[in-house]
UniProtKB/TrEMBL annotation:
Binding site for substrate: 70, 94, 363
Protein name, UniProt field: Glutamate dehydrogenase
Entry superkingdom: Bacteria
Keywords: NAD, Nucleotide-binding, Oxidoreductase
Length: 475
């Protein structure tokens, strides 16, 4: 039993150690994979409101077994080296698990973005990007950031523009960062990608009846009661899609200023609109509000989705968590100590390195799009439609010939004729990735008696792939 709570990085290391103990890695390779290669700390000044403000930022590179390395940039007051290194390590395992050809990295800036005006944030972001880019810590071939907590399309567009200004002849400059807006080299479906990935992950879980049984659940997502923590980018999209498209009921929403609870279900879009207007969930009419938000993590539900920040399920509250299934939409929401408690009580955890990999998967598609300088589907869409037209023409001929005996289903023609656009292709690639990665984890889980949970299974699959890359490099 883990007595004291380890730090976030120690937690990730403990989970890593649990997996490698069941593997047969060559001597020394385990240590090489585990350690973080380098962490760069930068302190820079920006003149704002008549005085110089000094900011501290980090960019950590965990593993360069594949390059570029990839990982988001987070803006939060609590950002620190331990956190950034833990997140960079998770990126290595995440990319390996979903077969995105990247090493792991992560960045962070100690800042509360809500303390600054938009034009001030732009100045700060551009200066941070300059400091990283001049050391190749932002670079299309070496290090490619993306959004994370507190950052989004807007910040990524500033970073891309800053890099382009510093590298005016680099034809691939746009590939230096992902998560950009569509009009600045982004890709359709990136904003929703991580939440969409959580939805696809749960759908795949429910396609495995044996796994569903381990969680003491039955059936499909339809009617399942879900509590979500954090209605930001990831939590909002996951909760919205699961309720609008899969029939799940969002019974609880936990935010900074407390939690909403309604056993009959809460309309996610209405809560999101409420937060935009009022700055928090307090006062939302169609649910009971409790100021002690974190306590709602312990309410009865079928699925718990922590989608805000790390360490929210710890040795302090793990034993009281009643959800039989937890999907880690955030990075590191369950500490190593809590993980052990949950395993012992039979809770099934779909781990972060898989559950939130939708973001990096679609980032990979965006990077490929930027390097190929063409939108997905541009070449083949109309050709695909023309071929489908041939089939429809033949079916219409048959329809006329058979008269009343047979006719085409009314919307078949319209649905079948339409060639896939970029968004559909991105969703299809994401769905395929999430399904395949789940299958590799689940297979590992069930094929060995000593692998008793999905997290260990995911780590083994990922570490094995990283080890193969190192071996291929002669390390
Ligand atoms: P975000 O900033 O868009 O949203 C975070 C949300 O959590 C906000 O609504 C915030 O108000 C809420 N929150 C903050 N502190 C809280 C608290 N104590 N209790 C309840 N709610 C709180 O961030 P995001 O991009 O959605 O990221 C959330 C998590 O998902 C992070 O762990 C991040 O690392 C992870 N993640 C994000 C992406 C991505 O593509 N954005 C990809 C992979 C993983």
């Amino acid at each position: 039993m883990i007595q004291a709570e380890p730090s976030f990085r120690e937690s990730v290391d403990l989970m890593f150690n649990r997996a490698v103990a069941l593997m047969d890695l060559p001597p020394g390779l385990e240590e090489k994979i585990r350690v973080c290669n380098a962490t760069y700390t930068v302190r820079f000044g920006v003149r704002l409101r008549g005085q110089v403000h000094t900011f501290t930022g980090y960019r950590s590179v965990h593993s360069e077994h594949m390059e570029p390395v990839k990982g988001g940039i987070r803006y939060a007051p609590e950002v620190n080296q331990d956190e950034v290194e833990a997140l960079a390590a998770l990126m290595t395992y995440k990319c390996a698990l979903v077969e995105a050809p990247f090493g792991g990295s992560k960045g962070g800036l100690c800042i509360n973005p809500r303390d600054f005006e938009e034009h001030e944030l732009e100045q700060i972001t551009r200066r941070f990007a300059y400091e990283l880019a001049k050391r190749d810590l932002i670079h299309p071939a070496q290090n490619v950031p993306a959004p994370d907590m507190g950052t989004g399309e807007r910040e990524m567009a500033w970073i891309a523009d800053q890099y382009a200004r510093m590298n005016t002849t680099d034809i691939n400059a746009r590939a230096c960062v992902t998560g950009k807006p569509p009009n600045a080299g982004g890709i359709a479906g990136r904003v929703e990608a991580t939440g969409r990935g959580v939805q696809y992950a749960l759908r795949e879980f429910f396609r495995h009846p044996d796994d569903v049984k381990v969680a003491k659940l039955k059936g499909t997502l339809d009617g399942k009661r879900i509590i979500v923590q954090g209605l930001g980018n990831v939590g909002y999209h996951a909760a919205k899609f699961l309720s609008e498209e899969d029939g799940a009921l969002i019974t609880g929403i936990i935010e900074r200023d407390g939690a909403l609870f309604n056993p009959k279900g809460i309309n996610v879009q209405e809560v999101r609109n409420w937060i935009t207007r009022h700055g928090g969930v307090t006062g939302f009419p169609d649910a009971t509000h409790s100021a002690e938000g974190a306590a709602v993590l312990e309410e009865e539900c079928d699925i718990l989705i922590p989608a805000a920040l790390e360490g929210v399920i710890s040795i302090e509250n793990a034993a009281r968590i009643r959800a039989p299934l937890i999907i880690e939409a955030a990075n590191g929401p369950i500490t190593a100590g809590a993980d052990q408690i949950l395993r012992e009580k039979g809770t099934v955890v779909i781990p972060d390195l898989y559950a939130n990999a939708g973001g990096v998967t679609v980032s990979y598609f965006e990077w490929v799009k930027n390097l190929s300088h063409i939108r997905f589907g541009r070449l083949q869409r109309r050709q695909e439609e023309a071929r489908h037209q041939l089939v429809v023409d033949e079916l219409e001929r048959l329809d006329r010939y058979l008269g009343d005996a047979w006719s085409m289903t009314p919307d078949f023609k319209q649905k079948y004729l339409r060639g896939a656009d970029e968004l559909e292709l991105v969703r299809s690639g994401l769905d395929d990735t999430m399904r395949t990665a789940y299958q590799s984890m689940s297979e590992m889980w069930h094929s060995r008696d000593d692998v008793t949970d999905l997290r260990t299974a995911g780590f083994i699959v990922a570490i094995d792939r990283v080890a193969s890359s190192y071996r291929a490099k002669g390390i």
